[in-house]
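Subject: two folds for Thursday's group meeting

Dear M.,

Sorry for the delay on this. The cluster queue was jammed most of the week, so I only got both jobs back this morning. I'm pasting them in the order they finished. Each block is the input sequence followed by the predicted structure tokens. Could you check whether the formatting survives your parser before we put anything on slides? The first protein is the one we discussed after the seminar.
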Amino acid sequence: MQGAGQRRLDKKGVSFCTRTTYDENAITNAVEIYESLRGGTNFMASNNDCGVREYDMERFQLLNHIRFPWPVNHTSVSPDRRLIAIVGDHVDGLLVDSQSGKKYNAIVLRTVASVVGHRDYSFATAWHPDGRTFATGNQDKTCRVWDIRNLSSSVAVLKGNLGAARSIRFSADGQFMVVAEPADFVHVYSTSADYKKRQEIDFFGEISGVSLSPDDESLYIGIWDRTYASLLQYNRRHKYEYLDSYL
């Protein structure tokens, strides 16, 4: 896909559609939606043409176009909106300052740190709600967890079964991290147990991505297949006791 579009659930049709790149060999790899520091809703598109584009979703306006030396596969904005984790067709990721600003009509982002440890190209990033922890998913079949206070080594290295870590999500309460492989496997890790406890969801199908509901009660897994395309929903299981029900 070389473009990006916007739909509203409360209205019919497409609210906004634009072509993000005119490079015939480029595609839009990922879209990140977030609330800007100014209070509006923005989204950031990561493209194969080595560009990252930031859009205002309310005014349907391109705000920034940032260029990198390699195709960008995924970007994610920290909870305080001040840092951006960027990964792509390079073994190292980048942590950049989102507030660096413009210089001579070009966007110049200051690199805070390089994220070194993976052995292949990366495809996914995600931030923990605490704003200090983020994760990267790589083609080397690992998901690495990082602490911005010490990026000399990763906090955890989590290995997959078959393929790359292609999609990562933290729950809103920060208790869980969900990692999806390209097919068949989704892993749910307990962050409070230092990622040593996990639940593995095993099924048959190519995975387009994962997402959690805002209240963390449901996990959604997208299955892409020309015949059996579907959306799987898993609900969070609670162990209620009498005292819990009383409270």
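Second protein, same layout:
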Amino acid sequence: LKHSAWLAPAPQRLNSGLPVNIGVLFVPQQEAWVVERMGKFHRILEPGLNFLIPLLDRIRYVQSLKEIVINVPEQSAVTLDNVTLQIDGVLYLRVMDPYKASYGVEDPEYAVTQLAQTTMRSELGKLSLDRVFRERESLNASIVDAINQASDCWGIRCLRYEIKDIHVPPRVKESMQMQVEAERRKRATVLESEGTRESAINVAEGQKQAQILASEAEKTEQINKAAGSA
């Protein structure tokens, strides 16, 4: 006879999205369920089979332990040289401590997003416009360090932060393009002058070698004439 596979029932959930305590619970992989007993923190359920006391125990929070991707909305920031930029980014987070993430802050994702925005404005205020584009990677790293220092008490770790787009004002963009064109013309002029200089040096060197060869030929001819007369 074939034995049918015994499947664990999917956890029933309240309208709030939290699982209902039916005594026997199966926690999915990469999730942590925070349980309260009579309104007080009791324990954290790990993935697999778990037993609770109905009515007394309640699942208060469900924390995902997977990497979370959050889009940081576009915001304005002023650089050290008083240029206003529009900048947005992407934040990669992971819950490291389900207890702190549940009780340390009301909305962890919102709190970290706000922290990322304020940190970005603060870090951009320390850099000039040119350095913002040159030091993009170090800027991302500085934001990650600042977020992790503040979010440790929330049980969340920022894995990385990536700047998506940096928008500069139209006038500043035009001046940057003019600066690039001027730099290109300058390099072209320098290369042209260096080419002319090398060409003149080569011509002078050729004339010098020709004079040396002519002098040596004349000297050899005089020696031969003197030898013939003797």
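Two things I noticed about the second structure. Residues 66-168 form a domain with the Tetrahydropterin Synthase; Chain A fold (CATH 3.30.479.30). Residues 1-15 have pLDDT under 50 and may be disordered.

Cheers,
T.
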